[in-house]
Structure formats: C-alpha cells, structure tokens
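Take a careful look at the sequence and tokenised backbone pasted below. I need to know what the token row says about the fold.
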Amino acid sequence: MGRLGCGIAGAALAALMPLCEALAEERKACRQFRVTFQTELAAPPGKVMLGKRQVGVVEGASGGRELAVCIDARFAGEMERNTFCFVSGDELMIYNVWSTGEDLPEGSSVPGFATRWGAALHEAKEMGAAFLGKLLELLRRVLGNG
C-alpha cells in the first residue's frame, strides 16, 4: 500500500506541475509597479486602463494611498518617466504627458491622482516645468553661457 500511495501522490504531483508552471509563466507576464497618491482613496479601482484597453489589474492597496498594480508585460513599456495615473470611476487610467522613451524599471512608483482635475493640474505643472527648462536653455545659448 505504501508504494501505491507514493505512486498516486507522484502522479498527482506530476499532473499539477503544468498548472504550477502555467501560473509561474502568467506571473512573469506581469510587471509590478506602485501608484502613490497624495490623498486617500475611498475605494481602490480594480482595472488598470490605457485608453479603452485593459492593460493590468490593481493587486492591492496599502493604507489608502498606495496601490500595487500588475501591468501586462506587453504594455509595461507604457510605464515610463513622466507617467502618472488617475482614477476614473472604477478604473485606474495610465497617462503620459509625453513619451520619453525611458521605461521605468519594474517596482518603480508613479504619482497617482484621485480625480481627473488633479491629473490635469499635474500635467500643466509638468509641461510648465519643461517649458521653463527649454526657455532657460535657449537663453543660455543666446547669452553665450552654455
């Protein structure tokens, strides 16, 4: 009976191995990021969206101000410098002010905003800072200091 029990257990384990491998592969297909909010969210959204396409899921919330998100590896390149997120209904929207071509490493944190208005203010601030930087660069060239 001992050998029969081991044979059955071995067969069951062998049958479960492909399932475990599939789960591990699914996990690799996901890239982890954090979204950090300045204010607490009433309820965390469930889906992560890029436009009208779902590209990930919210896996957890920490203290109402930080979300752990899992982005499908095919879309992880959308998480780059200048990316931020905002909540729209029950969805977390990914938004880039402009593409930088600089992908964020997995585990990075991006700013999050509880409303579209907060996101719009952030975008205006980012664009204003970029404009001032370019203006200063131009002035340095014109004045011969750079």
User: Anything to note?
Assistant: The first strand starts at residue 30 and ends at 37.
